[in-house]
Amino acid sequence: MSRPEVVAGTSDLAGVLSREAAARLGSMTSAVRAEPHRIADLFPAAAREVARGPADPADPRGLLAPTLDDAVRGALLDAYADATEGEEDVRLREVVALYRYGDADEKRAVLRALHRLRLGAGALPLVHDALRTNDTRLVAAALGPYAAEHLDPEAWRQGVLKCLFVGVPVAAVAGLDRRADADLHRMATAYAEERRAAGRDVPPDVHTVLAASATASAPDASATPWEEN
After folding, report:
1. What pLDDT, on the 0 to 100 scale, is given for residue 218?
2. Cβ neighbours around 193 below 10 Å, total
3. pLDDT (tens digit, 9 = 90+) per residue, 124-138?
4. Which residues fall within 8 angstroms of residue 75, CB to CB, at 6 or more apart?
5. CB-CB contact of 138 with 108 (8 Å)
6. N or C: less crowded end of the chain, CB within 10 Å?
7. What whole-number distance in Å separates Cα of residue 75 and Cα of residue 62?
8. pLDDT in the model for residue 79
């Protein structure tokens, strides 16, 4: 199969798939809508059959934007959610199974789509599982819109710190400006101070976290006492 032409920086499948690949995806989504159980077989094969790889060559691991794999599998998940409207328990069990038994790319696709699948807070164990890993692909996907809406404050703050630890750009964190608070400010400050005390560089993203949380912190929160004058 020839690879689809990729338009850098876009995850709009209509703009990146060849006619042949788009037809295959249409057939697969139609099959899922007609027989929802078929997603168990079609989901793992979707990237191989339709399209895979980064949507943006500058983001090869898909840390900041969905890959083609994510978008293709996300289309199947959207079809499955539509086909199982009113059956949240059934849908949750299937989504959990797709994640549990999937490889890292399949897990990432599930995490990317969670906020669209109408699962309430039921899929939070998947987010927690991803945040326990050191796989930057999963950590970045776990802190998307679903986590921004459902993850409790302490776990969310720890997730942001995890990004700093493992090198996930905090631009991947959905809702950072909205959810950043004084506690996160203190945590990021302590992290920066520990690195400086150890003679290590402070990642630039620490400044982003401090700026996002400054308003919620003390009046002098924008100050960075660990910086040299």
Report:
1. 53
2. 14
3. 999 999 999 999 999
4. 13, 25, 29
5. yes
6. C
7. 17
8. 97
Cα–Cα dist 39/95, whole Å = 10
Tokens of 206: 């620490």
Tokens of 221: 């929160």
pLDDT of residue 94: 98
Token pair of 222, please?
Answer: 């924008």
Q: Two tokens at 62? A: 């898909």
Token pair for 22:
């788009």
Name, in order, each residue with C-beta under 8 angstroms of 155's C-beta and a sequence gap of 6 or more.
Answer: 128, 131
Does this model's pTM top 0.70? Answer: yes
Residue type, 140: A
Q: What is the pLDDT of residue 144?
A: 97
What the block records as the tokens of 35 is: 């027989």
- The first and second tokens of residue 145, run together, are 């819109």
What whole-number distance in Å separates Cα of residue 170 and Cα of residue 32? 35
Q: Which two tokens stand for residue 23?
A: 């037809």
3-state SS, 17-59, equals: CCHHHHHHHHHHHHHHHHCHHHHHHHHHHHHHHCCCCCCCCCC
CA distances from 168 to 108, 138, 146, 161, 195 (A): 14, 10, 18, 10, 17
